[in-house]
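Risk register update: the risk that structure generation would not scale has been downgraded. Supporting records follow, first protein first.
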Amino acid sequence: MNKDHDSLKEDEENPIWTKDDFEKAQPAQNVLPKEFFASMKKARGQRGKQKDPTKQQVTLRLDPEIIDYFKSQKPEGWQTRLNQALKSYIDEHPI
């Protein structure tokens, strides 16, 4: 084992933060230029923010067999198919 303990020495370029450092810290959006965030590439397969949100996010509890039914057809897009099924039901059964 290395008795010098190099790994425990403080890194001058990245000093250990003090309580005061944490209290003075600000979110990146407040200190970095907007161009920084604009230049960041999205990860592959990551969707961008909706320009004009057309749907609302909700939390909904469903029976497992309902989820299994829609996922068994094809796991991808099961929520879209469930949405379409609900729309069809509404069209056929107006209140």
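Supporting record for the second protein:
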Amino acid sequence: MREVLQVGEHVTRAAQGVYVFIRQADGPVYITALMQDGRQSGHELYHGQQVELVGEIRELKIQNLHAAVNTVVIGTGYGRFHPRQDGQEMTIVGQSDPLTVGNDDQHPLHVINEYEQTVVTDPAQPLDVKHQPPAGQVNALPEIVPDVTGAVVPASAGRRALLLRAAPDNTGLIWLSGAAGVGLPLAATDGLLKLETTAAVDLLATNATDKIFVMELIA
């Protein structure tokens, strides 16, 4: 979620997860997390800092403690956030499974969300998926175009991790959640994101024409 806060201003936003991290901030903010069980937890945070909360977040109250206008980008989720440095990938760790190295020559396929998942051997000749790839290979999921109603990468018990990257010509954010402003936002300028989870992942684009590239690492 991205907020531009005046001096002393505060806003309240719906959120979910157990981690709160400050992706961008011009100065300090005070985060009050209202938990699902009714408890509250308050924290003063700066750019690049994060906090792990005990319990599930329901909403966040964000207050500007900076002496000037403060542009703040906040993410929430279920895994620890590792800030990306120049030349490095950005990683969220949800499980302890190690990364399996895959092939580099996978071809994303442009599809509409409602259509059946496909992989290709020739990019001009899509084929239906009939089997899972052998252990240690990469399952090239389609390039997804999540419209304003959202899209879902389905759950997979044999998955090691998902590799996600927003298309470089995107003009808006893609949210890893079912609602804009909730969960982790991915922008065109962000690097590769590795999400280690076997669960389904919701995706929602603020602009209907924006795309996200998805690859699946199979156990």
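Residues 86-137 have pLDDT under 50 and may be disordered. On this basis the risk owner (M.S.) recommends closing the item.
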